[in-house]
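If it is no trouble, might I ask you for a protein's amino acid sequence along with its backbone structure tokens?
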Amino acid sequence: MQLGCLAVILGLTTGCSAVVRVAYLELLPLQGFETLQTDRRVHYESEARAAAELLAAGYPAAISQIKTKLGDKLHITPEVYLCASDACFVKYAFLKEARAEARWRGNLILLKAKTLEAEGRLLPVFAHELVHAFWFQRNIGCTPRWWTEGLAVESSNGGGAEKILRALATQAIRNGQVFQASDENSCWTRMPPQLNGMALPMFYRQSGMFVEWLRAHDPKAFAVLLVKLREGDNLTKTIESAYSQSVTALHLAWTKYVQ
């Protein structure tokens, strides 16, 4: 173990706290969950049984949707844990303020189920997390945050961005409030600089709109992009190769299109 990480454990620095938290969660057994007998991939706190049954019913369609959108299937279908209580989610989540997350190996998805069910977002957010699991299973989870979240929003038909309507995001873009499509890797930051000062829900919606435009603007290039990314190629270089334009140029073209 590096000295810096040891210092984190001792509470002396935050330089690699994210790595330590990920390692800790991988070793932490998930307890207090029941297993749904009709789908043994689904585990739930007792108060989240209805949400578990809803998710199990929608699991096959979500898997099919992700395969269609991403051009390939998941290597494995993740185990899903549905927390009914905030305490449960805080205990097992990497980002405690989130509603859902996929673990870094892509083998497990954790959901704040009662909250998502009350918001009517359980299945779309689950599909969003399946997109993350898809890339984590290929060891390609750490790409620029606008792409990571934008593709997950686009592929899940808006999952994770429900709080911001498209019309509101469009108006923000027309007012000059646009996320940055930089190539900076921001997997380990809670608030990546690509937000350009905006709130996360707006960032998710705009990123999803940009990815949706990339797919519609040149479907063949987008299909090539997905294949190359599945093979582990660099995002920025692959976009430039597939579209014969830089990410910056494409982002500007999209912005003008929206405006």
Summary: The mean pLDDT is 90. Residues 49-70 form the longest helix (22 residues). Residues 140 and 232 are 7 Å apart (CA to CA).
